[in-house]
Amino acid sequence: MTDLNTTGAAPGPRKKTSLMVQDARTKKRNAAEKRFRLYGVLAIGIAVLALVTLLASVLINGSSAFRQTFITMDIYLDPAKLDKKGTGAIEDIAKVSTFGYAPLIQQAFETVFEKDNIGVEGMTPKTAAELISPEGSAQLRRYVLANPEEIGDTVSFDFLAGGRIDGYFKGRVTMASAELDSNVTPEQLQLADQLKDAGVLRTKFNWDFLTNADASENRPEAAGLGVAIIGSLYMMMVVLVLALPIGVAASIYLEEFAPKNRWTDIIEVNIANLAAVPSIVFGILGLAIFINFAGLPKSAPIVGGLVLTLMTLPTIIIATRASLKSVPPSIRSAALGIGASKMQTVFHHVLPLALPGILTGTILGLAQALGETAPLLLIGMVAFVRDFPGAPPEGLFDPAAALPVQVYNWTQRADPAFVERAQGAIITLLVFLLIMNTVAIILRRRFERRW
Amino acid sequence: MSFMKIATSAFAITAVTATAGVAQSRDNVQIAGSSTVLPYATIVAEAFGENFDFPTPVVEGGGSGAGRKALCEGVGENTIDIANSSSRIKQSDIDTCTANGVTEVMEVRFGYDGIVFASDINGPAFAFTPSDWYNALAAQVMVDGALVANPNAAWSDVNAELPAQDILAFIPGTKHGTREVFDEKVIAAGCEATGAAAAFEAAGDEDGCNMLRTDGVSVDIDGDYTETLARLAANPEAVGVFGLSFYENNTDKLQVATMDGVVPTTESVASGDYPVSRPLYFYVKNAHLGVIPGLKEYVEFFVSDDMAGPDGPLAAYGLVSDPELAMVQEMVAAETPMGPLE
Asked: Where would you find the membrane-spanning parts of this chain (chain A) (predicted)?
């Protein structure tokens, strides 16, 4: 108690203050707090503004990808063109390539011109047929090969309109730009207007965008996300099947069984480091180990899944250990106290209580893996793939694309119609991420217990 | 203990499928290489998948050099079958190929690609010569018979007939095959024509012709043409270098400049009147013919008149059809491997 006396002289008479009146220092402190709050609001404002701008630009540019212009045409499946020998044998019919189907569409336009009094001065059926996507003849050929008995009949088809025509009804192409555009003429747009008035041409919701495979630059209107969605799905399956058991097993051992010594310390530090490794590094690793060394095929979801597993493992281990740690020790003591073995304690009591946290961490890890692009570029997932992969497990080894890579791929294409499709793919990817994150939040809310 | 059971069985399943997958053989054609050739290859692959019973080939970009390197990695199902290339194969590639056992490679030239100079559609029109480009972009140019650091700031300084607009050019980065053609057919030609080449030779400077100015007037674009187009939209004053097919798909945004008075079109490139063009190739690993199903058929389909001919879909996209296509078709049918580079 001597300190008090030695440090200070006796305090002099204090200035009289009132709690009701703010002195200069209080004012200063209050002002500082106000300023800090303002900074906070500003920071949030900037973040929200950035998010809104981003979402708005993606939604405005991309939502049109989900609508597409279709032209309904009655096609006479001319036996003279499709089954020249008249045998009806499927081998002979298959010999007619898609180029052989194009005249059928021209013929249909001729009929429309005559019957419905539609047509633009000086336009031949050949230029008119350019309104329909090249996908049209492929669609016809598929139909005929599936139903060869209908050759000779007249069948109604919903054809995709060409990319420029579709762009005209979405405001991307105008009469003025068509004047300069070498791929479409204003006359073709006039014809499209007439077809719309006649009810032949309609713009409707485009499921094909979600189910079709990618398409070449000649027919952006037919490009879809089907293969990419399946590819991403397969990769997530691989990640889930591999990363969840490995991650959980590793965490349980480290958290509940492992002795605390230098080795486990090193392992712990390295897991934390691994979580911070840039994802492209895992891509290089995947290329070197899975493709060049193990000989797994390129562009296959199995390789993508393995690479993403490596990337997701640390995330899952860290989340799992955190949720194991949050289970109170009293639960373990009680279980051990009534004679349960260490393993029984973990699997009967600790793990079930930690499960919601583990699942949340896993789903967030999966969501991160779903949006990952860089490592996939190195293992050939950026390829043009048109065939759907088979059913798993064999399908895991077939070539496929992935959602984020498809976005990257489409932004590089020359045709302006791919811009809206890339943005549409972003919307699809965001919807998937939103769903996964919502599931994670719901799981946490419903099952998490707090002590 | 059900959790343990699930975990063990999951491992077992993946282990089994992994071995099954390695054992099964590849049944699709795999292609990689030039991003200039990529759109043509995808158009052919798509039509091939539709019209044949073989699976659709898998086509990857990555650049001409990377494609040729992948082709030369060796023979076997884990290596690609075809490398797309917008420039001719190099002796170093052939050496790597030979070292790795890829002895027979078939060189298929399927057409030509024009390289065009285009500016914003609302700006003034340009009519260039290679000399204009050399005088605009080179580090050192001839002024009054002597080599000096490039003093030109506006196109009108280079050539009084060009618009009085600041020089700003977006040219492909050095990793692009397009840049090689630009250097050779435009910059080197301009160097020769302005007399700078002779002056460099006299000064003993071998690389003089290839040095471009570094004061921000010439901008290398390492991305693809979509990036050049986006940059051009942000800087309407600039002039960009594009492939003819890219320009033809964006004629509503770009206006094309003439070179030596010739407008680039598929016709003028085919006739050789338009000077800046290059052949497009793909290289086929002969050892894979007959092993990978559909490979021969794909190559034949690619060079068929239906696809690569003057009225085919490739020409519609912007390819300048090869006048000697019939010869190429014969060569493909006979599976003739390429000889040594001359």
From this structure: 38-60, 233-254, 274-296, 302-324, 345-367, 422-443
- A&B contacts, CB < 8 Å: 139
Q: Residue A43: CB partners within 8 Å, gap ≥ 6? A: none
Give the CATH architecture of domain A226-447: Orthogonal Bundle (1.10)
CA distance, residue A346 to nearest chain B CA (Å): 11
Strands B105-120 and B82-85: unpaired
Asked if the model's pLDDT at residue B7 lies above 80, the reply is: no
Q: Is B242 helix (H, G, I), strand (E, B) or coil?
A: strand
Q: Is the peptide bond before A134 cis (omega within 30 degrees of 0)?
A: no
SS3 B269: helix
Q: Would you state the torsion angle of the CA atoms of residues A328, A331, A337, A342, taken in this order, to the nearest 10 degrees?
A: -90
Determine the Cα–Cα distance for residues A373 and A279; give it in Å rounded to an integer: 9
Q: Which of A193, A211, A209 is nearest to A201 (CA)?
A: A193
Nearest chain A Cα distance for residue B217, angstroms? 25
Integer Cα distance of A424 and A418 in angstroms? 9
Helix axes A226-252 and B2-23, enclosed angle (nearest 10): 130
Q: B109, B279 in Cβ contact below 8 A? A: yes
**Chain B contact for A283, CB < 8 A?**
no
Question: B115 forms bridges with which residues in the sheet?
Answer: B243
List of chain B residues whose C-beta atoms are within 8 Å of the C-beta of residue A216: 39, 42-43, 45-46
Strand partners, B334: none
Predicted TM-score (pTM) of this structure: 0.84
CA atoms within a 13 Å half-sphere pointing along the CA-CB vector of A136: 29
For residue A38 the two structure tokens come to 């303002």
Nearest chain B residue to A173 by CA distance is B252
CA distances from A223 to A77, A232, A415 (A): 26, 17, 12
Which residues are CB-contacts of A221 (< 8 A; sequence separation ≥ 6)?
A68, A69, A133, A135, A160, A161, A162, A163, A166, A215, A417
Radius of gyration of chain B (CA): 24
First to last CA, chain B: 71
Q: Range(s) for CATH 1.10.3720.10 in chain A?
A: 226-447
Tens of pLDDT, residue by residue over B285-305, are 999 998 899 999 999 999 999
Residue partners of B244: CB distance under 8 A and separation at least 6: B113, B114, B115, B116, B264, B266, B269, B277, B318, B320
8 A C-beta contact, residue B280 and residue B111: yes
Asked whether this chain's domains B2-112+279-334 and B114-277 adopt the same fold, the reply is yes
d(CA A112, CA A118): 7
- Say which CATH class B114-277 falls into: alpha beta
Is B280 in a helix, a strand, or coil?
strand
Chain B (49-88) residues lying within 8 Å, Cβ to Cβ, of chain A: 49-51, 55-56, 58-61, 77-78
B2-112+279-334 belongs to CATH 1.10.472.10: no
Contacts with A, B 228-267, CB within 8 Å:
245-246, 248-252
CA distance B263 to A237: 54
Number of other CB atoms surrounding residue A450 within 10 Å = 4
